[in-house]
Design a protein that fits this description.
Elements: E1 9-12, H1 19-49, H2 56-73, H3 76-82, E2 89-91, H4 92-125, H5 130-133, H6 136-162, E3 171-172, H7 179-183, H8 191-222, H9 228-256, H10 266-287, H11 290-305
Parallel strand pairs: 1-3
Antiparallel strand pairs: 1-2
Helix pairs in contact: 1-2, 1-3, 1-10, 1-11, 2-4, 2-10, 4-6, 4-8, 4-9, 6-8, 8-9, 9-10
């Protein structure tokens, strides 16, 4: 018996009940998770060990990769273990923990992307004041703010879940615990809770996207006054960041900033958001960034020669 009702554990239905397809899910997600872990940890280690990657952009990229790695780790290992089980039980407390981690690191990724765009704005539009505005102390304060806002956002999700009574059934038609699938199981009118949920999660994604679009509009307008070489370099950096922003925030808005309506492709969008994006981000930042690739080669050369 649980204090919020008679349910103290849930059954995750996952992506499929077919044993053969479950094995395929295991293989695919295992490969993606290994790629995500290796890619993000490689960026984290490279930035930490390299003397050439000391600028604010790489300071924020370090935390973006850390958030991606932790975000993926909060979901995927459990998912591919569950794919080998016939029935996947998750306790109420484990469910809360997964929701907390999912939203903590997901929000952290969003806030870091916002601060990275602010860094690009200052570098391009206020170059004379860049070293003053984006000092080491300023960057540390921004990261502390990102962690604080992420924690507030995540703990709000937990508060909303704690208000839900669960009397049965306990089948979650999903591969992980999140507030929206749980709303369907609550034995109460969830209209107000859902509004709060959309306002909380949806607002984080939507407002961040609006801020990012405004900042890049200002940046692109200001580039008209720069030289061709400066424009080329700035556009290359901005294009990489805009690609990551769209990959992260568009699925996030689709999942969290809408009424509780179920679409056939919901799970595919969420798989892309929770598994595809953390896998793609390090690829985008390494393949399109000569400095990161050069630092990785130097680090690899030093490790081999030593």
């Amino acid at each position: 018996m649980h204090q919020n009702g008679s349910i103290n554990e849930f059954i995750l239905l996952g992506l499929t009940q077919d044993p053969m397809k479950q094995k395929l899910v295991f293989v695919i997600f295992f490969v993606f998770f290994v790629g995500t872990a290796v890619g993000n940890l490689l960026i984290i280690v490279t930035i930490k060990c390299s003397r050439t990657l000391g600028s604010p952009m790489y300071f924020f990229l370090f935390y973006l990769s850390l958030a991606d790695f932790c975000f993926s780790t909060s979901i995927v290992p459990r998912l591919f273990v569950d794919s080998l089980s016939s029935k996947t039980f998750i306790s109420y407390s484990e469910c809360l923990t997964q929701i907390f981690a999912l939203h903590l690191f997901g929000a952290m990724e969003v806030f870091v992307l916002v601060f990275m765009s602010f860094d690009h704005y200052v570098a391009i539009c206020k170059p004379l004041y860049y070293s003053t505005i984006m000092s080491r102390q300023s960057c540390l304060i921004l990261i502390m703010v990102a962690w604080l806002l992420s924690f507030i956002h995540s703990i709000t999700q937990i508060v909303l879940v704690l208000r839900l009574p669960f009397c049965g059934p306990n089948l979650i038609d999903h591969y992980c615990c999140d507030l929206q699938p749980l709303l369907k199981l609550a034995c109460m009118d969830t209209y107000v809770i859902n509004l709060l949920f959309v306002f909380n999660s949806g607002a984080v994604c939507s407002c961040s996207l609006v801020l990012l679009l405004i900042s890049y509009t200002v940046i692109l307008r200001s580039l008209r006054n720069h030289s061709a070489e400066a424009r080329r370099k700035a556009l290359s950096t901005c294009t990489t960041h805009i690609t990551v922003v769209l990959l992260s925030l568009v699925p996030c808005i689709f999942i969290y900033a809408r009424p509780p309506v179920t679409f056939p492709f919901d799970k595919m969008v969420e798989i892309f958001y929770t598994i595809g994006v953390p896998f793609l981000n390090p690829l985008i930042y390494t393949l399109r960034n000569a400095e990161v690739k050069s630092a990785m080669r130097k680090l690899w050369h030093v490790k081999i020669t030593s």
